[in-house]
Design goal:
106 residues, mainly alpha, 0% strand
Length: 106
């Protein structure tokens, strides 16, 4: 679930071109959510466990991604910026796993 904040008509503000309104979801967040949801749940759970383990050593990226993934798996709201960061990190993990698999097969 992507967290969305509603803004009333009374709160209209001037935006510069390319600027998101407060509470407006980044358009790429929906693609990021689709990407994450396309990864099998068992794999996501494995990633969450691995990230949580690495976070114990003080790795801030792993800490943030682990907690974001936990919230997503539990159906809790996740803001677009956390979702985009998680999708990017999972993409890197997926590429790394695919590279290892290709080397083992080839």
């Amino acid at each position: 679930m992507i967290e969305k904040i509603e803004i009333s008509d009374d709160e209209k503000i001037e935006l510069s071109p390319g600027e998101l309104a407060p509470g407006e979801v980044h358009p790429s967040a929906f693609a990021a959510h689709q990407f994450i949801c396309a990864i099998p749940k068992t794999t996501l759970m494995l990633y969450q466990e691995s990230l949580a383990s690495v976070a114990l050593s003080g790795n801030r990226l792993a800490d943030i991604c682990s907690e974001t993934l936990r919230r997503l798996l539990d159906g809790e709201p996740v803001s677009d910026r956390y979702l985009l960061g998680l999708a990017w990190q999972l993409r890197l993990l997926e590429e790394e796993n695919n590279d290892k698999l290709s080397k083992e097969i080839g």
